[in-house]
Amino acid sequence: MTPCAEGMYSYTVQAGDTLWFISRRFNVSPEDIVAVNPGVNLNSMYVGQMICVPRQNGMVQPTPSREVQSPPQPQSPPQPQPPSPPQSQSQLQSQPQLPNLPMSQSQIQQQAPSMVRRESNETGMMNACPAGTQSYVIQSGDTLWLLSQRFNTTVDAIMSANQGINPVNLFIGQVICIPYENLNPQRPQPQPQPRLQPVPRWVSSAEKTLNNYLRLLWLQHVYWRRMLIQSIAFSAPNEEAVTSRLLQNMEGFETALRPFYGEESGEKFADLMRERLTIGIELFKNIKAGNTEAADDLERLWYQNADRIAEFLGNLNPDWSVQDWKMMLYDDLAMLKVEASDMIFGNYDDSIQVFENIEQEALKMADAMAWGIVRQFQQYFGL
Asked: What's the rounded Cα separation, in Å, for the pair 323 and 376?
């Protein structure tokens, strides 16, 4: 690449970068970046690509931003509070009925507990876990619920061994302690300690049904979304039929939320998700046509929609963090654009690889949504 002119900054594209992210990071407009990179398709950037970024007043002034693949710093969550009662009788109704879909625990694949480790961390210091536990390094897609199933323990047991952990804000590389009493029956048990032992929490059938149903909805969402991208990329005649089926997925989300938050809130969430889909379709078509300016404007609207979804969910449920939902939705949009661009420009292997990460993000959002509902409406889940 030709060296950047004086007054420019040479920037190496990172995984998950978009023109909109870079412009926000360096406090310049997307148009300024496009202007200093003539002939470069900034809607199809690749990792390692060098681009030029204008400097402000002779120096780079990036605004604080979240790197797409950098794990968020752990935050101290608020101390557990007793569950608040429903706001009103009309809002909760007498006994909400969960959507009745044929999902069972056996559909969730069990993974061998191969990631438990006792090695020292990067600083060379041992991870000090209490007796009866072993250290575990968080991997992509992990949630406390998945870990509890994998290691034959409970979410409460894991949280008791990790005081202050935020169950919906785990990040890759984070080290936590996992109770190992049930991992290997032949392992010698430690001597009894003079401390309270965590009481295993019974997971009700209602909670399993809710979690499985939300996982089904989010996975259907990303699968049909990928099929729509293929239809657009190859100008397939089934684009209208695939779009219609994808829109049905929004009705499923409305059905899931309605028993807990009422018809109006269920419809509002479905409308926000439809808007997210509509903007995405127009964005993909403009990327395919090479309309950079229109694509940038649509991408900006895309992230504004993500902000509205996060704020709506945060106001609906005190256990749904607005910031956590923004991070998850931003990650999904960044990966979705890469997936679509790779498909449109023929990078099929790369498109498949990024889709595997999209699947994990979908499961993460489903588990976060289920966990918040269970925490807010404990009386309906046997807690």
From this structure: 18
Neighbours of 178 (CB within 10 A): 23
Size of the chain in residues: 383
Per-residue confidence at 66, pLDDT binned at 50, 70, 90?
very low
d(CA 274, CA 250): 7
- pLDDT recorded at residue 200: 52
> Strand pairing partners for 243?
none
Phi, psi of 26 (to 5 degrees): -105, 10
- Residues of the chain with pLDDT > 90: what percent? 41
Phi and psi dihedrals of 149, rounded to 5? -70, -40
For 6-25, letters b (16+ CB in 10 Å) and e give: eebbebebbbbbbbbbbbbb
Residue 106 CA to chain centroid, in angstroms? 24
Question: Which of these, 320, 101, 299, 134, lies nearest to 211 by C-alpha position?
Answer: 101
Structure tokens at 227: 């099929």
List, in order, residues 6 or more apart from 149 with CB less than 8 Å away.
108, 110
Query: H-helix or E-strand containing 324?
Result: helix 322-344
Residue 88, CA atoms < 13 Å, CB-side half-sphere: 4
Residues ≥6 apart with Cβ < 8 Å to 174: 71, 74, 137, 138
